[in-house]
Amino acid sequence: MAPRKIIIDTDPGQDDAVAILLALASPEDLDVLGITAVAGNVPLDLTSKNARIVCELAGKVDVPVFAGCDRPLGRELVTAEHVHGKSGLDGPDLPDPEMPLQDGHAVDWIIDTVRREPAGSVTLCPLGPLTNIASALQKAPDIAERVAQIVLMGGAYFEVGNITPAAEFNIYVDPQAADIVFKSGIDIVVMPLDVTHKALVTQARNDAFRALGNAAGIAVAQMTDFFERFDKAKYGSAGAPLHDPCVTAYLIRPDLFTGRHINVEIETTSELTLGMTVADWWGVTDRPANAFFVGDLDADGFFTLLTERLARL
Known about the structure:
- With 313 residues, the chain is of the alpha/beta class.
- The chain has one domain: Ribonucleoside hydrolase-like (Inosine-uridine Nucleoside N-ribohydrolase, Chain A, Alpha-Beta Complex).
- Helices cover 37% and strands 18% of the residues.
- It contains twelve helices and twelve strands.
- Helix 1 runs parallel beside helix 11 (245-252) and helix 5 (131-139) crosses helix 7 (175-182).
């Protein structure tokens, strides 16, 4: 079976970096056509830089990286340096990238790529705010029927919010963009906090990354060493949740995850609950299902896969 063609849309972010590394380490499963950067965890100049740093860490300097939208569709940018550090990749000491940023805008490249590749062959994998994806759908509505699937990290239901009481960060940063994506009619798979908070990097799991002895394994261990302090203090958990790698792992091993096809709507107007993913988990409305909302994973299987693949780099 041919590897699945994907576009990774991202705002690295340590957990974004791990998701990218997992994808680049899995060429038999995933053909990474390119990486598009969006403003989110840190501003665009840093996310587009960090994406290239991660490609070089993986030894995959031929992957094109494009810069996209530097602000949400209808509001000011909210960032998360309090979690990820000033650079977005605080923890390891990684050199500045030598590989160039590609010419052209990420949104245009997404559109051109989806139109160029056979219909139904490209999966979009957003790991950050959905600004680039929504902008592409607004600019070129015809691509919606050509996209195979969108597998995204964002939202929450049972775990409620992590940036406000009601909203998860990625959706909160650009709720208007999320609303456009969830109303697009595209087949959507959602990795909300409900599942990502179960992908916890315990001390033993982080030791396994470090014990790989390669640059990628050591860097991942240093990244999680850095950002776990925030989650341990906030949630009282045993380690940091690896949010974004759930997207990549799902693409490789969907059997590790369980969820439900449900209706998900995005709150775009309320000051109190802006960015909330209103997930009809219990089917109490007659709104049609528009997303596969993941609720659980095999955490041991997830970390076994991640460790095995990082060992390749």
